[in-house]
Write a structure and sequence with these properties.
Layout (H helix, E strand, L loop, with lengths): L2 H15 L21 E13 L7 E18 L22 E8 L2 H13 L7 E6 L6 H14 L5 E6 L9 H23 L5 E7 L1 H15 L11 E5 L5 H11 L6 E5 L4 H9 L12 H6 L3 E4 L10 H4 L1 H9 L1 H8 L7 E3 L4 E4 L2 E7 L2 H9 L5
Parallel strand pairs: 1-5, 4-5, 4-6, 6-7, 7-8, 8-9
Antiparallel strand pairs: 1-2, 2-3, 9-12, 10-11, 11-12
């Protein structure tokens, strides 16, 4: 490959990740500090990464054909700003950086379910919920665990957090490695969903980001096509944030899955530069997360949150937007819109099936076709 072209490819990959510098490490084995964190977030991990003897990154970029399990306690520093993950590639400073306070390998599926159930039973019966987070492209194990902890903390998630870590290479040039790893990782996520379904959780919510959304859809397809579709019925909500999925591939996945879990929500942004670059790498084929065909998603009974004009509208808008965090903390409005209980005084339903949320006029919610039809019948749409 000519040097100029090789350099151009490197720049494309660099822009796609939106980050550089030393990669995050967990900080396990660092000397105990008297600095009090802002919070300690327990994170359960199921992963198809191979085990490593390196405590800084106890799971590597190598692929495992079987699931590995662990539990971590992640300290959030007092200097934390909502939407950010303050990490270090060297020994973390507990006053300024995310770091792992503990790491417990868990042997086997049965023991993992027992650990999850023990954490669930510490909550009131109506709070026994699981939050499953699936990371995106270019993450090592510290990157993705810290992101899971950041979302759980900043969104005030009261559920038990279960992070599924597929074997991303965690390096700038490894886009193709990561794309291939989604295929390796889909079976592990399918098994993780089975495990979650077998716990005592009353509700299970799953969030997949970027390339991780592709892992989610492929895991759903595997469950549906191997006679295990019943486990999808245990999911009480799915969010795909900035999904890096070809729109034609997504339609094929939906056809193979059949009935999607509901509510099913996709966060899109036309200002997502990373997905724009991914589209160019894919020969111009549009990505689902760029909002290229919102009407098609509505017909699939999917709610779409268009965050193009919200905050910076970037690739990590779901994790970084304080506006979204504020709306989620209010809870009731978002629940009514997503579950389709009709328009409230805080919403204005538009003729195209979208709604502008009061207090966040730059966020547009496109309702699924079934909900839009009910709203039209009720006379809420002019």
């Amino acid at each position: 490959m000519p040097p100029i072209r090789l350099f151009a490819v490197f720049i494309v990959v660099f822009l796609l990740t939106g980050c550089g510098g030393p990669r995050a490490i967990l900080g396990l084995g660092a000397s105990v500090s008297s600095t009090e964190p802002a919070a300690i977030i327990p994170i359960f991990v199921a992963t198809t990464r191979a085990r490593s003897d390196n405590l800084s990154l106890p799971f590597s970029a190598k692929r495992s054909q079987t699931l590995n399990f662990a539990a971590f306690d992640i300290a959030i520093p007092k200097a934390h700003r909502p939407g950010s993950v303050e990490a270090s590639g060297r020994t973390p400073d507990p006053a300024r950086h995310f770091m792992a306070r503990s790491f417990q390998p868990i042997e086997g599926r049965k023991q993992f379910i027992q650990k999850l159930d023990a954490a669930l039973m510490q909550r009131a019966p109506d709070k026994r919920e699981l939050f499953i987070f699936v990371h995106g492209y270019n993450n090592n194990i510290a990157d993705s665990i810290f992101r899971a902890a950041q979302i759980a903390h900043d969104y005030n998630v009261r559920a038990v957090t279960l992070h599924y870590a597929w074997p991303s290479g965690g390096a700038l040039p490894l886009y193709v490695y990561d794309r291939d790893s989604t295929v390796v990782g889909r079976g592990g996520l399918a098994e993780t969903i089975e495990i979650a379904a077998q716990t005592k959780a009353r509700k299970i919510i799953l969030v997949g980001h970027s390339m991780g959304a592709y892992v989610v859809m492929e895991a759903f397809r595997e469950l549906a096509q191997t006679g295990r579709g019943r486990y999808l019925k245990r999911l009480n909500g799915v969010v795909l944030a900035a999904p890096d999925i070809d729109i034609d591939a997504f339609q094929s996945q939906v056809r193979d899955i059949g009935e999607l879990p509901r509510p099913f929500i996709i966060v899109v942004s036309r200002r997502d530069r990373a997905l724009g670059i991914s589209r160019r790498i894919a020969g111009g084929h549009p990505r689902v997360g760029s909002g290229a065909d919102i009407a098609l998603l509505q017909k699939q009974q999917i709610a779409v949150l268009d965050a193009s004009d919200l905050d910076n509208g970037g690739h990590n808008i779901f994790a970084s937007s304080e506006t979204l965090m504020s709306l989620a903390s209010e809870g009731e409005l978002m629940r009514r819109v997503i579950e389709g209980e009709g328009a409230s005084a805080a919403e204005t339903i538009l003729a195209d099936g979208s709604s502008v949320v009061e207090g966040a006029a730059s966020l547009v919610i496109y309702l699924p076709a079934r909900i839009l039809g009910a709203v039209i019948q009720a006379g809420a749409v002019p």
